[in-house]
């Protein structure tokens, strides 16, 4: 079974992980886009030349040292395959593109889901880019257990 | 059933009007089709089938399947997915007594096979002649579609002759791109579409597009439709809405505008960009109301803001099926599962991941066995496949109230055939497609194709094909000079690069069979 049969990535299929020092410095883009598809907005949006792609059908590879965490790529990714990761003061932060209603607010507690859609815990929203600021795609940062930054990939807003 | 809030879309509804469904008044809004207004009021059975009186609803919602026919203002067999509501409109279900919901002839369906297997009436009741005449009359009485029109057509017919450089049939992504890129260089363009709006199927694509930024990747389909529409308006393009082309005769196009005016269009070049229609799939009860084409549900939900149901099963995991699943969830509709007959997900992994992480199961090597329900879908049964054969005992009941068939599209090739283009059946491109060169010119000189009608792909490549065809027409007519040639060749290169990945392999294999030297 590979990711294309399951619809999610297993641990051994994940792209290389940024170092812990890098994660502690500032946000870093983590792109889970393992399949060769004709798509390149992330590369075109990056002002720091941090994403490498040989041609439009290549998979993106991030140079974590060049990435500044500016979030340009996560804003345009049509596959919603980019996540911003961060470690700070012993807590983990994951930023997710969110296109559902209602948009969560800062301070809300949301249910955290992994790649398989299983509940892995609860997290607090620490930052929101409202949907009207990004062509209707909101960005939501949740504070999570630092061990979960490679697990949490979706949120469910509790209404 | 009407959506009021949506994360991506805003629904601007027109004035409230009243239409009459089997004489019962129901509320509707100007700008929506009869089919969506009925649906918003919970009416799913539009008529009964013409022989066995099985319930019928809509399937495609874009005027291709003819499953949604009803009697409108006394005229039978009108596709209600293409008719817009008007105050006081009289809608009636047809082929039923007293109405399609409770049709007493519906019992034919449940008993006929027991006594008279399909086709047996050709052999039975033949002698004596008097019996044959009597039975034939009775059979004809409850078979057939609709009653003769009660209203008499009293409009005066009108006629117009149009001379133009390039006539473009179809105002979707390919047609609009062809129009824009040829008009930019000064060609006189007439653009025709059967809908009262331009955009084709882009108007329901709420997701951001793939591809490169140069070709509008990262932008939502609905936004691309708007951008193209604006550009068409800014250029001096003659747009004919609600215009149905019925034939191309020696390079002259015959069409009807708004059901009233006959058009004779005499162009120097023609671009056919008529798109595609959805295929259905064979399984038990696949004709029940509640079994829809994926695009039909998108139209209902994203164009008219009406929910198709509460819980859907998606058959097919190509990009259409995956994107639709995500769009259903955005509209607040549950998706019970996605089934895929192939042993792997057909569409882009990232689209699958988007719904998988929200908990939607994707069953590969599974297919739908039957739809469950009497008058509409009340559930479904899926089954596991091994080497494309059903595994006995692996059936599973899925709880759902509608089923979306997203198993592929076929090119709307009829006009090309009629015009005399050499056609080939190419499975990789979705069916019958014309032989053409790399600029889209078919074997009929001056007749071009672009978009899904040339082979099923997707909107980004359709736009590129449209640009190429439009530019080539303009170049051949002497517009644009070197600049246009340079631009055309550049887009041909981009398109080639676009198709170079694993997802383009199939397309390239198909193109090999139909592309000839320019």
Automatic annotation (TrEMBL), chain A:
<dbReference type="InterPro" id="IPR017896">
    <property type="entry name" value="4Fe4S_Fe-S-bd"/>
</dbReference>
<protein>
    <recommendedName>
        <fullName>4Fe-4S ferredoxin-type domain-containing protein</fullName>
    </recommendedName>
</protein>
<dbReference type="Pfam" id="PF12838">
    <property type="entry name" value="Fer4_7"/>
</dbReference>
<feature type="domain" description="4Fe-4S ferredoxin-type">
    <location>
        <begin position="58"/>
        <end position="87"/>
    </location>
</feature>
<dbReference type="GO" id="GO:0016491">
    <property type="term" value="F:oxidoreductase activity"/>
</dbReference>
<dbReference type="InterPro" id="IPR017900">
    <property type="entry name" value="4Fe4S_Fe_S_CS"/>
</dbReference>
From TrEMBL, chain B:
<keyword id="KW-0560">Oxidoreductase</keyword>
<dbReference type="InterPro" id="IPR001041">
    <property type="entry name" value="2Fe-2S_ferredoxin-type"/>
</dbReference>
<dbReference type="InterPro" id="IPR036188">
    <property type="entry name" value="FAD/NAD-bd_sf"/>
</dbReference>
<dbReference type="InterPro" id="IPR051691">
    <property type="entry name" value="Metab_Enz_Cyan_OpOx_G3PDH"/>
</dbReference>
<dbReference type="InterPro" id="IPR023753">
    <property type="entry name" value="FAD/NAD-binding_dom"/>
</dbReference>
<dbReference type="Pfam" id="PF07992">
    <property type="entry name" value="Pyr_redox_2"/>
</dbReference>
<dbReference type="InterPro" id="IPR042204">
    <property type="entry name" value="2Fe-2S-bd_N"/>
</dbReference>
<feature type="domain" description="2Fe-2S ferredoxin-type">
    <location>
        <begin position="15"/>
        <end position="97"/>
    </location>
</feature>
<dbReference type="GO" id="GO:0051537">
    <property type="term" value="F:2 iron, 2 sulfur cluster binding"/>
</dbReference>
<protein>
    <submittedName>
        <fullName>Thioredoxin reductase</fullName>
    </submittedName>
</protein>
<dbReference type="Pfam" id="PF13510">
    <property type="entry name" value="Fer2_4"/>
</dbReference>
<dbReference type="InterPro" id="IPR036010">
    <property type="entry name" value="2Fe-2S_ferredoxin-like_sf"/>
</dbReference>
<dbReference type="InterPro" id="IPR006058">
    <property type="entry name" value="2Fe2S_fd_BS"/>
</dbReference>
<dbReference type="GO" id="GO:0016491">
    <property type="term" value="F:oxidoreductase activity"/>
</dbReference>
């Amino acid at each position: 079974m590979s990711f294309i049969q399951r619809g999610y990535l297993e641990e051994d299929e994940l792209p290389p992980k940024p170092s812990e020092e890098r994660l502690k410095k500032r946000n870093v883009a983590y792109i889970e886009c393992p399949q060769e598809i004709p798509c390149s907005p992330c590369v075109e949006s990056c002002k720091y030349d941090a994403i490498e792609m040989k041609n439009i059908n290549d998979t993106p590879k991030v140079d974590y040292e060049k990435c500044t965490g500016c979030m340009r790529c996560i804003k345009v990714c049509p596959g919603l395959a980019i996540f911003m990761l961060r470690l700070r003061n012993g807590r983990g932060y994951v930023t997710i593109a969110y296109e559902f209603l209602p948009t969560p607010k800062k301070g809300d507690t949301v249910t955290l889901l992994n790649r398989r859609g299983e509940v892995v815990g609860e997290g607090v929203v620490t930052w929101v880019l409202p949907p009207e600021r990004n062509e209707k795609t909101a960005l939501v940062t949740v504070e999570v257990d630092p061990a979960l930054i490679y697990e949490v990939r979706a949120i469910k807003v509790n209404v | 059933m009407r959506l009021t809030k949506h994360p991506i879309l805003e629904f601007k509804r027109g004035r409230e009007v009243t239409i009459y469904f089997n004489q019962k008044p129901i509320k509707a809004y100007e700008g929506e089709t009869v089919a969506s207004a009925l649906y918003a009021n919970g009416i799913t059975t539009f008529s009964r089938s013409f022989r066995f009186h099985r319930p019928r609803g809509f399937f495609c919602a874009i005027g291709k399947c003819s499953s949604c026919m009803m009697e409108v203002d006394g005229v039978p067999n009108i596709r209600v997915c293409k008719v817009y509501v008007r105050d006081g409109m009289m809608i009636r279900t047809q082929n039923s007594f007293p109405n399609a919901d409770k049709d007493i002839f519906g019992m034919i369906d449940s008993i006929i096979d027991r006594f008279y297997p399909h086709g047996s009436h050709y052999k039975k009741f033949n002698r004596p002649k008097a019996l044959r005449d009597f039975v034939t009359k009775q059979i004809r009485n409850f078979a057939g579609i609709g009653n003769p029109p009660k209203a008499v057509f009293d409009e005066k017919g009108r006629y117009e002759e149009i001379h133009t450089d390039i006539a473009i049939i179809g105002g979707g992504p390919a047609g609009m791109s062809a129009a824009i890129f040829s008009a930019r260089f000064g060609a006189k363009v007439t653009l025709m579409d059967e809908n009262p709006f331009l955009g084709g199927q882009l108007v329901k694509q709420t997701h951001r597009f793939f591809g490169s930024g140069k070709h509008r990747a990262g932008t939502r389909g609905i936004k691309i439709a708007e951008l193209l529409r604006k550009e068409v308006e800014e250029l001096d393009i003659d747009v004919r809405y609600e215009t149905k082309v019925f034939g191309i005769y020696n390079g002259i196009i015959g069409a009807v505008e708004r059901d009233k005016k006959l058009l004779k269009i005499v162009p120097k070049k023609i671009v056919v960009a008529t798109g595609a229609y959805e295929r259905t799939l064979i399984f038990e009860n696949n004709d029940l109301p509640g079994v829809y084409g994926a695009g039909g549900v998108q139209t209902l939900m994203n164009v008219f803001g009406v929910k198709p149901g509460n819980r859907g099963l998606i058959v097919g995991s190509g990009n259409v099926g995956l994107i639709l699943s995500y769009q259903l969830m955005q509209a607040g509709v549950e998706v019970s599962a996605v089934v895929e007959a192939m042993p792997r997900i057909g569409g882009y992994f990232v689209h699958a991941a988007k719904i998988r992480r929200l908990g939607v199961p994707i069953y590969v090597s599974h297919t739908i066995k039957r739809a469950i329900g009497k008058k509409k879908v009340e559930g479904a049964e899926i089954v596991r496949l091994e080497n494309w054969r059903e595994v006995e005992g692996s059936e599973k009941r899925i709880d759902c109230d509608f089923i979306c068939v997203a198993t592929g599209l076929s090119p709307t090739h009829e006009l090309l055939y009629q015009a005399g283009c050499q056609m080939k059946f190419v499975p990789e491109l979705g069916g019958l497609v014309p032989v053409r060169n790399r600029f889209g010119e078919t074997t009929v000189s001056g007749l071009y194709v672009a978009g899904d009608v040339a082979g099923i792909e997707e909107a980004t490549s359709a736009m590129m094909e449209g640009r190429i065809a439009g530019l080539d027409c303009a170049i051949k007519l002497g517009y644009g000079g070197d600049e246009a040639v340079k631009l055309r060749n550049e887009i041909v290169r981009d398109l080639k690069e676009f198709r170079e990945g694993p997802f383009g392999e199939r397309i390239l294999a198909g193109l090999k069979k139909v592309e000839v030297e320019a």
